[in-house]
Amino acid sequence: MKKPRKKGPAAKKGAAPISERPPGPSSAPPGRQRGQSPFSPRRSQSPRALAINILARVRATDAFLNVVLDAALDEHRPDARDAALVTELCYGSTRRQLQLDEAIAAVADRKLEKIEDRVLAALRIGAYQRWFMRVPVHAAVGATVEAVKEVGLHRATGFVNALLRKLGDEPPKGSGHPQWMVDRWTRHFGPEKTAAMLEADNLAPPVVARINSTRTTRDELLAALPGAKATTVSPVGVVLPSGQPEELYGFTEGLWQVQDEAAQLVGLYASVPKGARVLDACAAPGGKSCHLAETCSVVSTDVHAHKLTKIRQEAERLGVKLEVHKADAAKLPEALGEFDAVLLDAPCSGLGTLRRHPELRWRRRPEDIPRLASLQRALLESCQQRVKPGGLLVYAVCTTEPEEGADQVELFLRSHPDFTAEAPQGLSFPTWQGYLRTLPGPEGMDGFFAARLRKMY
Ligand SMILES: C[S@@+](CC[C@H](N)C(=O)[O-])C[C@H]1O[C@@H](n2cnc3c(N)ncnc32)[C@H](O)[C@@H]1O
Question: 86, 109, 184, 439: which has the fewest Cβ within 10 Å?
Answer without folding.
Answer: 109
